[in-house]
Amino acid sequence: MFSESWHYTIAIVIAYSMLILWVGTGRWTRVGKVRMDDYFKVGPGFGFLVLYLGIAGGFHTAFAIPGSMGFYHSHGVAFAANILWTVFTPLGMIYFIGSRITCLGRKFNYITPADMLVDYFGEGKFRAFIAIYTLSCCIPLMTANIVGPATLLSAGTENHIPYWAALAIMGTMVVIYVTSSGIRGVTWTTVAQAVWMFIAVWAAAFWCLNLIDGDLMALFTRVRDMDPAMLTLPGPQGLATPQWWATWPVFGIALYWAILPRGFMFFYSAKDVQTTRRIGLTVGFYLMALYIPAMVIGFTAYTYFPELSGTGADSSFPRLLAEYAPAWFAGIIVAGGLAAGMSSLDADTNANSAMLTKDVYASFIKKDATDRHYITVGRVFVIFLVAITVLAATRNWGLVVLMIGVTASMITQLLPAVIAVTVPMKRVWFTKAGITSGILAGLTVALATRPALLGGMLPAGIRFDPSFWGLVVNVPVALIVSRMTTQPDPVAVARIRGALNEEFRREA
């Protein structure tokens, strides 16, 4: 039956796929009640372990396999800054901000990010703006989450599964269990995928060390001899200046991670505030434990294929697997890559379908339909979003990490709005018009700055992440416009701040 080595890889991938479909459509993941809030979020909520693995697995995405490995291949040890930042930034963004989102979501039965923001700032077209804007932010990320694993699957099967077929397989799987089970299927499959991904990345690291006789220092010596810049700042391409090193993991990764729509959905689905806080204190260590083996893998791939650069860096590890790994082992790693991509693609798809359903369709198109009708519409949006993602992935957009960076530049511009709602202050600093103006101004600057950064056109001393530059413009614009426009309803502000003060009064 297995006359060719790649048959083993396909067999393992099939077994993994069946496992995920079984988990995602299992009896314990099925929606028990035909209610929109039960389909898009969970009540009474997930406990610590399930939500921990759901959030952790959802964070790494294709960033884990092969994105971070490709970035180590291109930029060397400078990328290791993420090891530190991914431990400390969840402390702030999940422990402090995420817990407050959990509090408000449980208190007022929010489903989407726009629910929280419009409850504070006011309804109108602002709801649709937030929904469409966040969806636009997520498209590059969703594309990255399917491009990397599809590339890995194609290479791991010696191209017997073409790239386009790999895209179709991943998309079909996500559609099946997301439409079947909503947020429950998303979370439980992400738990399984997080475990598989963790094992796969560490197994791949030890296999890579075995290729160089198990000597970690020999690996670093070999890298240094090939290009000393790989082990120093700003790296061989001059990108990772200290300024970039300090801001990219914070503004480009950690902040966007916490305020992505999927982040809101997970926070809303937490059992209680303390569950979210415990995750904030500990989830960074899971993330750190994946960056370390990713460096070993990326450096090993570099020593074998130093000629690969640019968009080719993401393919270095898939190529290493295809040429040197036993087929059965390649199958395990390829399945780990699928886990990395689908663990976020499914969550993003569910969250964005919720926004399109509730914030656009139910708010502006058909306001008086049944929950069953809205769930059906949500499932249609799932198919639509996955189809758009697959079609987008057929184009060569560049490095996975850089695609994620585009999402980061965009979604980070929502930070002032989120802080305005979740951090009670003595006065109201931002209005709906101010937030809207700030987002658009920050978006323009962030997207304009990114090509300048990547092209080396920014002087080294100001080479901060584009997300940071966007916020530098966003905040003052939002403040100025807010001073000249109508303040949010004081009753709504008092109600939200009262809920937060009641929950967190012991911290005052």
The name of the CATH topology is Sodium/glucose cotransporter
How far apart are the first and last residues' alpha carbons, in Å? 67 Å
SS strand fraction: under 5%
CATH architectural grouping? Up-down Bundle
Mean pLDDT: 83
CATH superfamily: Sodium/glucose cotransporter
Q: Please write the string of helix (H) and strand (E) elements.
A: HHHHHHHHHHHHHHHHHHH
Q: Which oligomeric state applies?
A: single chain
- How many DSSP helices? 19
Q: What count of structural domains?
A: 1
Q: Any idea of the CATH class?
A: Mainly Alpha
Q: What fraction, in percent, of the residue positions are helical?
A: over 70%
Radius of gyration: 22 Å
Total strands: the figure is: 0
Task: Please mark out the parts with pLDDT under 50 across 5 or more consecutive residues, or reply none.
Answer: none
Q: What kind of sheet is the major sheet? A: none
